[in-house]
Amino acid sequence: MDELVLQAEALGRALKQQREVLALAESCTGGMAACAITYTAGSSAWFDRGFVTYSNLSKIEMLGVSVETLDTLGAVSEQTAQEMALGALQFSQATIAGSITGIAGPSGGSRQKPVGTICFAWAHRDGRLKRSTQQFRGDRAQIRHQATEHIFLGLMAMLNQS
Asked: What is the separation of C-alpha 26 from the centre of its chain, rounded to a whole number of angstroms?
């Protein structure tokens, strides 16, 4: 967790410098990214809120993810990640948001979406949007850790584009 906290601190400095405010929507990481962020004193200056939406119903109710998206593509899809990030923006005071949804294991995977398949999205109020799917290896803890690192890297990349 120490390296995640260091990454969160660096992200916080960049957010604060650019006067940006962050919201997160997490599924398979269960709030791990928000935990690393709030470990840092003063993070309330640049972190508005985190949504832990583990169930499909919570993704629908809290973030406005489409039932059709979940029925058609499933919770582990770039479209779901995109709708989660956009929902985090819509239902917060944030200017930038990131989302994580995937299969951390050890079970739950399939041939099409094996364990370690994690989908991400990053959205900014100015309309910028990026999404990706990564395949991580390791046990459940390692996959969740890698996913948290990846969301931070994507947020830094989006901040560096502005």
From this structure: 5
Output the CA–CA distances (angstroms, integers) from residue 31 to 111, 148, 159, in the order listed: 27, 9, 22
pTM of the model: 0.97
Q: Residue 1 has what pLDDT?
A: 60
Mean pLDDT of 99-116: 95
Any alpha helices (H) in 22-139, and if so which ranges?
32-38, 56-63, 67-73, 78-90
Alpha-carbon gap, residue 22 to 97, rounded angstroms? 6
Question: Are 151 and 115 within 8 A, CB to CB?
Answer: no
Domain range 2-161, its CATH number among 3.90.950.20, 3.30.499.10, 3.30.70.260, 3.40.640.10: 3.90.950.20
Helix (H, G, I), strand (E, B) or coil at 21: coil
- DSSP 3-state assignment of 158? helix
**Radius of gyration over alpha carbons of the chain, in Å?**
14
Mean pLDDT of 51-72: 98
